[in-house]
Structures are given as C-alpha cells and as structure tokens.
UniProtKB/TrEMBL annotation:
GO molecular function terms noted in the UniProt entry: cysteine-type endopeptidase inhibitor activity
GO CC list: blood microparticle; extracellular matrix
Domain Cystatin fetuin-A-type as annotated: residue spans: 28-138, 149-260
Subcellular location: Secreted
Species for this entry: Alligator sinensis
InterPro entries in the cross-refs: Cystatin_dom, Cystatin_Fetuin_A, Cystatin_sf, Kininogen_Fetuin_HRG, Prot_inh_fetuin_CS
Stated name of the protein: Alpha-2-HS-glycoprotein
CDD domains, A to Z: CY
UniProt KW keywords: Disulfide bond, Glycoprotein, Repeat, Secreted, Signal
Keyword Signal: yes
Encoding gene (name): AHSG
Signal peptide: 1-18
Domain of life: Eukaryota
Length: 347
C-alpha cells in the first residue's frame, strides 16, 4: 500500500510537472481514483467520517457536513479499497454533550458567527463496510470583517477566557441556581460573543453534582459532579446586557442521563472535564478535541500547534503535494465533479 500511495504521488507530480503553465486540459479520463464528490459513495463515506469526527470531538459543538471537497477511491485488494476525503464542515448549535442526533441539529448561521471545520479523512471499505483509518481536522471562525459586512450589529466571538466572559458565566450560573434545586458545576464555556458596547452572550456546558443549591451555598467545594450512570449534563444559553438597565437572561436544558452512549466526554470521569483551559481562543478547535483522544502528548490549546490528530503522516504529505493544483478550492479540471455541492453556505 505504501508503494501504491507513493506511486500515486509520483503520478500526480508527473502530471503537474509536465503541464506547469497554460490551461490544464480536461482529459477524457480523470486521474486514478478521482470520483465525483456528490456520488453516493462520497455521501456514504462522508456520513461515516462526520459521525466519527463528532464521536471523537470532546469539546464545543457537533459539526455538520457542508461540502465534499475531494474524493478519491483507491483499490487495495480484491474486496477492499481506500477512500480519501477532504471535507468542509460547519459548526452546529448542538453541544457535543447534546444527545440530539446530528440530523436534528441546526447549523449556526453566518450572522451567528459561523465556524468552519476542514478535515482530511482516510477510510477503508472492506467487504462493503466503511471504517475510518485516520482523520485530521482543524476549525476556524469566520472573520469579523465578513460578518460586519452582512450584519454590522451582530455580536462577534470573543476569547473564551476573557474576564468579562468568565464573570458573565458565573453570574448566569448563580442566577440559574437561584431557581433550581440541583447544584450544577461548569464543564466548559463553549462560546462567547460580544455586542458593542457591552452586551455579552455566552453558551456553556454544566454537570449536575451531588449537592443541592442550598448545600452548595454552604460548602460548594465538597460538591462532586455525578459520574457514571448518574452523570447528568446540561447546556445553558444566556446573556447580560447593560443598556439601558442590566438585563440578565439564562436558559438551561438538562439532558436525561445517557448511560448507553459511548462518547469520549461521557466515558471519562467528569471531574477530568472540569479543567479545560482555553486561553485566548474564541472557539474549541476541532483539532484539539481529537488530539486528546489519540494520545497526543500536547496539552496546548494553541491554534498554532502543528500536531493534528493524525494517525498517518501520509495524508499530510498528500495534501502538501496536491495543494498547488487546487488553489482556494476552485473547480479542479483534474478532478471533475469536485468540489461537490454546498449544503448550507460558503464562508
Ligand atoms: C429528529 O428529527 C426527526 C425528523 O424531523 C424527528 O422525526 C425526530 O423526532 C427528531 N428527533 C428528536 C430526538 O428530536
Ligand atoms: C458529595 O460527594 C462528596 C465526595 O463523595 C462528599 O464529600 C460530599 O459530602 C457529598 N455531598 C453531599 C451533599 O452529599
Ligand atoms: C487569555 O489567554 C491568553 C493566552 O494565553 C492570555 O494572554 C490572556 O492574558 C488571557 N486572558 C485572561 C483574562 O486571562
Ligand atoms: C495511550 O498510550 C498508552 C501507552 O502508549 C496506551 O496504553 C493507551 O491505551 C493509549 N490510550 C489511547 C486512548 O489510545
């Protein structure tokens, strides 16, 4: 297989080098393994890949497929083939702890400061069954300039560790506890947006503890997040506005315990979830969530970290080599039928 991939690379390089200038011909037969991105096999592989990515994403939100950028299928044996995908994803409004199936999650609209994910995924189809061999993702929010163009007043993402954000979340959680018996502890701040001059909108995930709000008012430090079968999570959306008067709003949805769900977040001891510092970033990068699951030694949340959650360096190699022939995601004459259709919107 190694030799085969190397051969493909050589073929690509050769094709590219023999036609360094001038228009690329639309050949009668596409290069080896290239397939129409919107073909049923592309859709099927993308669905498996997106499920996998969401199942291994421990922070922030679930992602939905927006577009298949590239699709290649390479036979590896009489009843097996390798499927190589490049995907565009969009952040949904479902937190990863939300038990709603992805189909029921809405994609965050452009005016809500959308976040895009890019993934390279390699799958194996053996005897008709697809499994993911490797996936490498990263995500980034739309630029503030883009949003201001279509909506000058829309609240924009701000760093999750901003003092105003942390204070707002504390205030909203207190507010929630004032009307609820169960004491919840913060798992993570998932999103924070600010609207000038000083309105703050936040979204955060919480976990039920063994304390009542009354217990907690006396000894909050002794309250433990419920774990195992009893683990109970929730998700809150709230805001604090100061114009003209202070206006505090918070709504939390508490999810029924999901003892049967195998999810990295739910599988772990919830206490381990409590210390997830995200310093200076305005969203939970897909990359970080994945890397933790795959034994990446890097604990850093820096978007500059180059370690992706990659099981194989080949994907990275392939990408570097093929980048020049596919600048900016424009239609690729060497890869007809790709990129595929946009399901939501382009960022
Ligand atoms: C998800 O959406 C489908 C179709 O709209 C609906 O039938 C189903 O009840 C929804 N599931 C949940 C858990 O809301
Ligand atoms: C919660 O659990 C902790 C650790 O088991 C215990 O020390 C504490 O007393 C419990 N709190 C309540 C209110 O049961
Ligand atoms: C947020 O994190 C960044 C990067 O680590 C740091 O420079 C900044 O001081 C932090 N802000 C606050 C309010 O802690
Ligand atoms: C992480 O690595 C250790 C040793 O290298 C291994 O025992 C463990 O199973 C790995 N964990 C995961 C989640 O892959």
């Amino acid at each position: 297989m190694k030799a085969f991939v190397a051969l493909i690379l050589l073929v690509q390089i050769a094709v590219y080098q023999t036609k360094p200038h001038g228009p690329k011909p639309i050949g009668p037969s596409p290069p080896l393994g290239m397939r129409d991105c919107d073909s049923p096999e592309g859709e099927e592989a993308a669905a498996v890949a997106v499920d996998y990515i969401n199942a291994h994403h421990a922070h922030g939100y679930k992602y939905a497929l927006n577009r298949i950028e590239k699709l290649r299928v390479l036979p590896t044996g009489p009843s097996s083939e390798r499927v190589i995908l490049e995907l565009d994803l969009l952040e949904t409004k479902c937190h990863v702890l939300n038990p709603l199936p992805l189909e029921n999650c809405t994609v965050r609209e452009l005016t809500g400061h959308a976040v895009e994910g890019d993934c390279d995924v390699k799958l194996l189809r053996k005897d008709g069954k697809l499994s993911v061999l490797a996936a490498s993702c990263h995500s980034s929010p739309d630029s503030a300039e883009d949003i201001i163009k279509i909506c000058p007043d829309c609240p924009l993402l701000i760093p999750l560790n901003d003092t105003r954000v942390v204070k707002t979340v504390e205030l909203l959680l207190d507010q929630y506890h004032s009307t609820n018996d169960v004491y919840f502890t913060l798992i993570e701040i998932a999103r924070a947006q600010m609207q000038a001059p000083n309105a703050i909108f936040v979204e955060f995930a919480i976990s039920a503890t063994n304390c009542s709000s009354k217990d907690a008012s006396e000894h909050a430090e002794a309250c433990q997040a419920l774990s195992g079968d009893q683990a109970t999570f929730g998700f809150c959306v709230g805001s604090v506005m100061h114009v003209p008067n202070e206006n505090i709003q918070v709504e939390c949805e508490v999810y029924a315990p999901q003892p049967d769900v195998v999810h990295p977040v739910l599988a772990k001891d919830t206490v381990g979830l409590l210390s997830v510092p995200v310093h200076g970033f305005s969203h939970h990068n897909l990359r970080h969530s994945h890397s933790s699951h795959f034994n990446d030694s890097s604990e850093s949340n820096s978007a500059e970290v180059s370690v992706a959650y990659t099981l194989s360096p080949k994907l990275v190699v392939k990408r570097t080599v093929s980048e020049p022939e596919h600048p900016g995601g424009v239609l690729d004459p060497l890869h007809p039928g790709c990129p595929g259709r946009v399901r939501h919107f382009r960022i």
